[in-house]
Write a structure and sequence with these properties.
Length: 105
């Protein structure tokens, strides 16, 4: 959550810093200002989630039940993600070769 908020020293902070810095270097300061305002608005919502997770106690302690349809969807999304992680270099090489073939370079 802190990374999504853009709090230093997490990766989200550096990602936002680089994106906003690139926008300013390209004379798109208005884009960086709008992005920063959206980040500030996002911090409010992420802080509410953190507050709910840490401070507020729920009355209900029953386990979460996930239906079989949702389980199938989770596995359907997990398998391609794991495949991309495990075979990234091969996929990247194949994609690069396809682009070179398509562009003729």
């Amino acid at each position: 959550m802190l990374s999504l908020m853009g709090i230093p020293p997490f990766a989200g902070f550096f990602g936002k810093l680089f994106v906003f810095g690139a926008a300013v270097r390209r004379d798109l300061a208005w884009f960086a200002v709008i992005g920063a305002l959206n980040s500030v608005i996002g911090v409010y919502y992420y802080a509410r989630v953190i507050k709910t997770m840490i401070i507020e106690n729920g009355d209900e302690t029953s386990p979460v039940r996930v239906g079989w349809g949702n389980q199938v969807l989770v596995w359907a999304m997990l398998l391609p993600t794991a495949g991309l992680m495990l075979f990234w270099e091969r996929i990247q090489k194949l994609t690069g070769e396809s682009i070179r073939l398509f562009l003729g370079s």
